[in-house]
Write a structure and sequence with these properties.
The chain is of the alpha/beta class and about 400 residues long. The protein has 9 helices and 20 strands.
């Protein structure tokens, strides 16, 4: 029997040490050390397969991609799912990750073979109800309700079906019996993902994993999880509850500057075709309103900035934002107060972007400034005015590239 030894792993970045640490020496995270036992990990010492050496002058075939037939997803993934690649779809609970996976599974099976949909956290009734709500009755989608990795792999092998893609919901519920810890622990998540990555590469089948995020917005589990997969997709809630933003934060097979906007409906996530009308359908050139252009990924979005400047009601002036970084607003207020002698420091100030879309782009500085000036003087801008540009601490406006 192998001797049992205690090790410690950082819950944030995956750093390992034989000794306990109060602060991770790799990422400086406090109290992130989690203990695990080396006896929990089974080491396979079977026959090793020696790989062939690949030389740079060899002509290798390009990575084969499987189109999802979901136009917006194919655009974000630069053509579709790569055979043998592992994808991680992350987002807050209830944001629509499982719904999006069900829709992709349905659309990809319109032309491509078979798909397995593995659920480790929902009951049969819950998953079937979701598919019924989305009006998905595809006989080429096989449902597996299990969270044991070895059992899942055996079930797929026993079926004698070679799927074109595998969906797993979620990676935090997976477990391996040989590891003495609960699902969701650092070791379980890491080793379960490792097994899935090995299976994807061995069988040349793309696997899509759903991952939850913690209260800080980071993917739950070890940081190494993001390094193990080939592509990380992040779904975010934008503004009102009906808007979703899907962006690529890592992609070994394409660019990471693509985004797609969805509107959530009773029948699933619907891509927003006409972005201009979606954000500007109710625009009016009232005082405090200014149009601007911001770049989100490769898309140029017309956004309405709204500002309201009023006398304080509760004594101390308040600064409230929706979709706009508060620090950026405070900087613009300070510049306008000093350079233009505007009495903004003693006022309540409320600023928001259309739809509450979260924007962290200095190109909207001028639009925010004009909205504040328009509101304080109650002077509407021209209906045809569009403002963009960065404001420096010296009060100068700097050009931007769109």
């Amino acid at each position: 029997m192998r001797k049992s030894e205690s090790h410690y792993v950082c819950n944030n970045c995956g750093y390992e040490s034989d000794k306990w640490f109060a602060k991770c020496p790799m990422c400086n995270e406090l109290e992130s050390a989690v203990e695990y036992n080396t006896a929990d990990v089974t080491i396979n010492t079977g026959n090793l397969k020696v790989p062939d050496i690949v030389f740079l002058d060899q002509e290798l075939p390009p990575a084969k991609k499987i189109p999802t037939n979901f136009q917006e997803i194919d655009s974000v993934l630069n053509g579709g799912l790569v055979e043998g690649a592992v994808y991680l779809l992350s987002g807050d609970p209830g944001i629509g990750k499982s719904t999006l996976m069900a829709q992709i599974a349905n659309s990809i099976q319109a032309t491509e073979g078979f798909a397995f949909y593995v659920s480790g956290e929902e009951s049969t009734e819950q998953v079937v109800q979701r598919f019924n709500r989305l009006e998905i009755k595809n006989k080429n989608i096989g449902l597996i309700f299990e969270n044991n990795v070895d059992v899942i792999l055996k079930a797929m092998e026993k079926s004698n079906i070679t799927p074109s893609v595998i969906f797993i919901d979620s990676v935090q519920t997976l477990k391996i019996d040989s590891i003495d810890s609960s699902p969701g622990s650092i070791l379980q998540v890491r080793e379960s993902t490792r097994k899935m990555v090995e299976y994807a590469k061995k069988k040349n089948i793309p696997i899509v994993l759903v991952g939850h995020v913690n209260k800080e917005g980071a993917i739950a589990g070890p940081k190494v999880l993001e390094h193990m997969v080939d592509c990380v997709l992040q779904m975010e809630l934008e503004g009102g509850s009906g808007l979703r933003l899907l962006k690529v934060t890592k992609n070994r097979y394409g660019p990471t500057d693509e985004v797609v906007l969805f509107e959530i409906t009773q029948k699933g996530l619907k891509p927003i075709d006409n972005i201009n009308s979606f954000f500007l359908s109710d625009y009016s050139n009232e005082s405090g309103n200014t149009l601007t252009i911001v770049k989100v990924g490769q898309k140029l979005l017309p956004i309405e900035i709204q500002a309201l400047v009023s006398n304080p009601v509760y004594g101390s002036p308040r600064r409230v934002t929706s979709g706009i970084p508060l620090d950026r607003l405070l900087m613009i207020i300070a510049v306008l107060s000093k350079k233009l002698k505007l009495p903004l420091e003693s006022k309540d100030i409320f600023v928001s972007s259309s739809g509450g879309l979260r924007i962290n782009d200095s190109s909207m500085d001028v639009a925010i400034a004009l909205s504040l000036i328009s509101s304080i003087f109650d002077a509407p801008l021209s209906f045809s005015t569009i403002a963009f540009g960065e404001i420096g601490l010296d009060g100068r406006i700097r050009g931007i590239s769109l």
